[in-house]
Amino acid sequence: MSMIILAAVVPTGFILATLSRSPARAFSSYGIAVPIAFVILLTIALLLLMRWRAVSVQDGTLTVRATFYKKEVRANDIDFSRARVVNLEERTELRPSWKSNGYSTFGFDAGHFQARNGLGKIFCLLTQRERVLWLPLLDGKQHILLSLERPQAALDALRASAR
Q: Mean pLDDT over residues 59-82, rounded?
């Protein structure tokens, strides 16, 4: 379930419960204002959290920061013979399936997921699905999926840092 939906549904349930118990008191002074303010602030915080992301390559190490998740991988651990830019609409087996520890909302996936068809674990930072950098690791059971502005340039930089 999307965290943003959860952030709105649970507090809304509390608001409705308060209204059903004592409608007159709910509308007096701060009765309903506090839960509504909480819903608004929590939703804004979750939306801002989606903007906290970065990808860098330094000293032969790929570092991906996605919301409150971080993944560091040495470039030498990436299987460059299979790494490429893919379209997840075509390569459905690479799509993130179940969240094991991730943040997911409409058009945004970040964190740790399981791949379809037993392909293994995936660390994602996805904002779109058409041009995604797929980085399988040499162990064969871990993958990284990144939505980048220039995915091929990032792949070339990673290859150069592995030498």
A: 91
